[in-house]
Write a sequence for this structure.
């Protein structure tokens, strides 16, 4: 007996093109799903918009009266801008370096010609708490969480904090205006 070959007059071609279309459509859908799944992972590597907006911040120092402190936000951190009294400046300058855990003169922490203004990041160097002004043993800041005491120059004097309050990079744009960052 001879083998019979059955042909479908043109139907075989339609099945092939239909099958090819389904394969292409499924591949395109899979590629689209892959891009949609990968996008959040790639996008999360971009810097946060709120951080970008605060990479630098300008502040008018004339808003601060003598003996007052203003807290501004920079890169998601509090920054203390303090207009120190003559007495506070003198106390900070007269402190012997031997009394300090992290020895640094007051002159190293302020800009020349603007000794009355102190600009420091308001995060305790122990565990990042926000210290309060005027309640410490040395006329400066006190961190109530763990008992760190800072003087009027933001230098650590007592408690578990290992370092002085950080002085951010800043510059004077005019006699009364600064740019932090």
């Amino acid at each position: 007996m001879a083998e019979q070959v059955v042909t479908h007059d043109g139907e075989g071609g339609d099945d092939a093109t239909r099958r090819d279309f389904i394969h292409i459509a499924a591949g395109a859908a899979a590629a689209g799903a892959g891009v949609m799944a990968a996008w959040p992972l790639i996008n999360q590597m971009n810097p946060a918009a709120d951080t970008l907006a605060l990479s630098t911040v300008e502040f008018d120092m004339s808003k601060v009266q003598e003996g007052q402190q203003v807290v501004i936000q920079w890169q998601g951190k509090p920054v203390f801008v303090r207009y120190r009294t003559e007495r506070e400046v003198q106390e900070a300058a007269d402190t012997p370096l031997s009394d300090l855990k992290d020895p640094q003169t007051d002159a190293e922490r302020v800009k020349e010609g603007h000794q009355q203004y102190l600009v420091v990041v308001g995060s305790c160097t122990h565990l990042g708490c926000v210290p309060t002004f005027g309640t410490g043993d040395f006329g400066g800041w006190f961190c109530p969480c763990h008992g760190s005491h800072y003087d009027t120059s933001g230098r650590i004097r007592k408690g578990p904090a290992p370092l002085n309050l950080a002085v951010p990079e800043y510059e004077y744009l005019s006699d009364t205006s600064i740019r932090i960052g």
